[in-house]
Specification:
Distance between the termini: 33 Å
Strand content: 15-25%
Radius of gyration: 36 Å
Number of helices: 16
CATH topology of the largest domain: Multidrug efflux transporter AcrB transmembrane fold
CATH class of the largest domain: Mainly Alpha
Mean pLDDT: 79
Structural class: alpha+beta
CATH architecture of the largest domain: Up-down Bundle
Helix content: 55-70%
Number of domains: 4
Largest sheet: 4 strands, antiparallel
Length: 546
């Protein structure tokens, strides 16, 4: 294959690639051959920016391992966001333990926060038996009674409850006015015992699970986070809240007393998926969203042993220290499958599956800053960028036509192909176009004709020296080659440096600039030369209007 055929093939592939993806930008076309779309950045599409901080205060991790923990957190967050369906998110590390996340097109802050920040620690724990419930609660009451001054908020609640119950106590004493002194003392003793039940007075006992009124949920959360309070009951037990009811968020909240050590964890999880309950005989799951869990081979064996050895016991499914459900084990489950149901809608179920499949975060992640970018700002930015690009393109095209005549026509053809090529490459690799990227694209428009100007001026000099048109064109391209290579390669190196050492917006500028430089060199040296050879030097011209 000769040199001319190689150049022809390269030109054909360049034009085909440019047109293949750029068709999506042409209005009125009912379909596009390309399935990929150019993603728009946060500043163009609108969305959300979150600054996260990996919190090592609650986990025991060596200083040397923190570096890997932050990197692991970045990868897990990226996997979750990818499954969530956000187009080209930007996830960058900032400093030692901070992560900057940009989510174009996302406006649901709560959903994004739950998806990103959830630690996703899945555990299956046995629920304590009734006598164990009573034992733990007695220990808690005894501890709080001795340390009531430390928990001022509990003391205030206790006093309020005592005032509310004073009338009831008076009625009880009136009812036993005619009883013996021994009976009166017994009643008074019972009442005093009730007053000693600092914690138990806040809950509604009965069938497991016990519940706690919505007004006291905040107190409960404060208590269970206190390390001293945790020592009030046996170390092999823990108090855990149940999932809140989205349909009635102020309803009583269930709480459980669980064994501290999990029977099995999410480390054995092989797959998770969402579906709708089909069993009409089970009103808790029928026609409601459920999450199906499937353990790996080792997990299935372990789960079979757990369910086989604990029939008629309640097994709590705990995610990030919240009990989602605690079904009673009726029989051994040999296939390693379980379901979570009843306390979420389909969207929540989908998000839970995402975090379960993506894996556990190595440490809690806190959102310390949030910034919303409205869709209106994004639209204004796009329109401004379009106007700037169009005006720049028209001005450059008119100048080239007026000043270089037929050479200007060739340069404008190359310019359009170069812009198409840049947009197509960005689309092909799934890049994100941002406002700085548009700035790089506009700069490319100016630089794209720079090489052609050098070539055309060289050709003019050769023609002025008396050379023929063919000789002048060949000499103009040959002598301008070194200058074109120097100017474009140095700019390309600068773009590479900006990309490697810059952050999001600077990288967007560097990417479009770098692609534009490569395209402008190819169009100026190869395509414009081919146009000259086809329409100028191949004919017997005596004069070249340049």
């Amino acid at each position: 294959m000769n040199n001319r055929s190689v150049k022809g093939m390269l030109i054909f592939l360049f034009i085909l690639l440019s047109l293949y993806f750029v068709l999506q930008f042409v209005p009125g076309i009912p379909f596009t051959w390309a399935q990929k779309k150019l993603n728009l950045g946060l500043d163009l599409k609108g969305g959300m920016q979150l600054l996260l901080e990996v919190d090592f205060s609650e986990v025991n991790i060596k200083k040397a391992d923190k570096e890997n923990a932050v990197q692991s957190a970045i990868e897990i967050i990226r996997n979750r966001i990818d499954q969530f369906g956000v187009s080209e998110p930007s996830i960058q590390r900032i400093g030692d333990n901070r992560i900057l996340v940009q989510l174009p097109g996302i406006q649901e802050f709560e959903r994004a926060r739950n998806l990103i920040g959830k630690t996703a620690r899945l555990e299956f724990k046995l629920v304590a038996e009734q006598d164990e419930y009573e034992k733990v609660l007695t220990n808690v009451d005894t501890y709080l009674k001795k340390n009531i001054e430390k928990y001022a908020f509990l003391k205030e609640v206790q006093e309020e409850l005592a005032m509310e119950d004073s009338d009831v106590a008076s009625d009880i004493l009136d009812d036993v006015a005619d009883t013996t002194a021994t009976e009166e003392e017994a009643v008074e003793t019972d009442l005093l015992d009730e007053e000693d039940k600092v914690f138990t007075n806040l809950i509604n006992s009965g069938d497991t699970p016990y519940t706690i009124a919505y007004d006291y949920v905040g107190l409960f959360k404060e208590l269970i986070k206190d390390p001293s309070f945790k020592k009030a009951f046996p170390s092999n037990f823990q108090l855990v809240l149940g999932k809140d009811d989205k349909d009635d968020p102020k309803s009583d909240r269930p709480f459980y007393i669980l064994y501290s050590n999990p029977e099995i964890t999410g480390d054995y999880l092989d797959d998770a998926s969402t579906s709708t309950g089909k069993n009409m005989s089970d009103p808790k799951t029928y026609n409601k969203p459920i999450i199906s869990l499937e353990f790996n081979r080792n997990g299935a064996k372990k789960f079979a042993n757990i369910t086989g050895q604990n029939k008629n016991r309640m097994l709590a499914i705990v995610l990030d220290d919240v009990v989602y459900m605690a079904p009673r084990i009726n029989d051994r489950i040999p296939d390693g499958r379980a379901i979570i149901s009843g306390v979420f809608n389909m969207m929540e179920a989908h998000d839970l599956v995402i975090v379960l499949k993506a894996g556990n975060l190595p440490a809690p992640v806190n959102i310390i800053e949030r910034k919303d970018v409205g869709a209106t700002l994004g639209t204004d930015s796009i329109n401004a960028g379009k106007r700037a690009g169009l005006i720049g393109l028209i001005v450059v095209a008119i100048f080239m036509l007026v000043y270089y005549k037929i050479g200007g026509v060739f340069a404008n053809i190359a310019l359009v192909l170069n812009i198409s090529f840049t947009l197509s490459i960005l689309t092909l690799f799934g890049a994100t176009l941002t406002m700085p990227g548009i700035a790089g694209l506009i700069l490319t428009i100016g630089m794209a004709v720079d090489a052609n100007v050098l070539i055309f001026e060289r050709i003019r000099e050769e023609l002025a020296s008396g050379k023929t048109i063919r000789s002048a064109v060949d000499a103009g391209f040959a002598r301008a080659m070194i200058t074109i290579a120097d100017s474009n390669i140095t700019t390309l190196i600068a773009a590479i440096v900006l990309y490697n050492f810059g952050t999001g917006p600077i990288r967007g500028f560097a990417v479009t600039l770098g692609i534009g430089i490569i395209g402008s060199m190819f169009t100026a040296i190869v395509i414009v030369k081919a146009l000259f050879n086809t329409f100028v030097t191949s004919s017997n011209r005596d004069k070249l209007s340049l």
